[in-house]
């Protein structure tokens, strides 16, 4: 199947736009990769420090036998259910490396915070920037420069993009990502959401809400809804950076250890019968791989956070993408899955239906992915349309993920849930923003209503509780961008806005903050750029202004005359918000990141 003309056109545009930066990046990769091995190149004292803590047999292999040495970067902690399984992975990796005549060292750990813990708290203001801290932590680990390859252990929201950005700055290293999988299904996501809405109305108390939340989040593994963490795993599969089909195998599955050992074999080039060197990650992640990730995101209705994160990932590889690229691809990439919040199924049901392998196979077959790309495996992207199975203890086989085992969850490209990816770019006198409409009812794709302006999500919640929002309303929440307060997710707004919509009111959200797609069925124009704190037009909106959000036409407008809009004064971020943001719970340590952050459409990068 030839590549779809739109996919090819967007890819070529990205290639041309990125040519200078990409060529400079690849030159750096080539220069770094051409050096001697670390233990041969570095001084004796340097090498002695690097191997002082390893067994004598590993010292011999690294220094005398010149065996490959794998650097492991782990995001393990047991605060995150998704990362708790990583505790024993380093021992498995070291054992498998030794069996193959190689060695492995834990080069370093990176921080990993749980957005589920920090939602609605001051800690959430560190969340987005933790991505760049993780990238820096990855660089600190790999800059020991004693490694011939790398394995990266991470799953959740900012962790995978941070690890990937960091790894791309060591683009000469063959690199494989090692996931841990989702937790078993508990209380369904839709049932949990219903209890949250009841709690927002005062119909369920704290005890009932706590019971529901603990029924949903109850074991090791990622949360089972298709948010940023699980979207990460889908995108890594689409970029060929996993052992194929690894993403959604549960932590307790007997295959999990075998897949982790397979990651060691893969990064060492021992996974195939034929000789095959796992290519450097800087070569794997090219403009075609980035477009493949974008198409996979759109086809699965994934997290809108990746309109920020994957822009930053691409920049780390010398590639420039923007929201126009996402929007143009969304017009031709069909929606192939219904996974909560875009449906009722969870990621375990998605995996049972065929999972990432099914989606990748369908997109390749429809010409909506580049099949002719490098991956960490010899068989190319086609291998990632398969699902692993245990043939016997310690051995894997891969079988085609097609056809779908449940077309209520995963459908073929010839008969999709929607002919488009459900993501729209919105432009107008408020700036540029995006909206995820894949789960929004069609009769809500256009909302026109008076604005109510808030300076925080707490202020909106207070107005909701007081009954002030029981009407058609476009809620505008400003001062939530990267420069203002680190761009926290505003998940706490989902229950009250859902309640208002459920009462029959026309409701929408407009914000320079993030929602991660968790807005679900409520229309939400998010990531508005420029943000209010940078003088963006959202700071001009006044209570009572009529706002029209038209996700069909792709517009977001305050319906006032051009003359009045131009003359209107830009509000200043209240001093109490600046002061509150600047101090307490470590937020002051991130002041430099807030000052230096680029716009959301530029990836909110703090390192450029």
From TrEMBL:
Q: Which SUPFAM superfamilies match?
A: IlvD/EDD N-terminal domain-like (SSF143975), LeuD/IlvD-like (SSF52016)
Under the heading Gene3D superfamilies, the entry gives: IlvD/EDD C-terminal domain-like (3.50.30.80)
Catalysed reaction per UniProt? 6-phospho-D-gluconate = 2-dehydro-3-deoxy-6-phospho-D-gluconate + H2O
Note describing how the cofactor binds? Binds 1 [4Fe-4S] cluster.
Q: In which pathway does it act?
A: Carbohydrate metabolism; Entner-Doudoroff pathway
Instruction: Identify the keywords attached in UniProt to this record, alphabetized.
Output: 4Fe-4S, Carbohydrate metabolism, Gluconate utilization, Iron, Iron-sulfur, Lyase, Metal-binding
| InterPro entries in the cross-refs | 6-phosphgluc_deHydtase, Dihydro-acid_dehy_C, DiOHA_6PGluconate_deHydtase_CS, ILV_EDD_C, ILV_EDD_N, IlvD/EDD_N
One of this protein's Pfam families, by short name? Answer: ILV_EDD_C
- Which cofactors does it use? [4Fe-4S] cluster
The EC number(s) given in the record are 4.2.1.12
- Matching PANTHER family: D-XYLONATE DEHYDRATASE (PTHR43661), PHOSPHOGLUCONATE DEHYDRATASE (PTHR43661:SF1)
Query: Into which family does the record put it?
Result: Belongs to the IlvD/Edd family.
- Chain's role: Catalyzes the dehydration of 6-phospho-D-gluconate to 2-dehydro-3-deoxy-6-phospho-D-gluconate.
Which protein, by its recorded name, is this? Phosphogluconate dehydratase
Q: Which gene encodes it?
A: edd
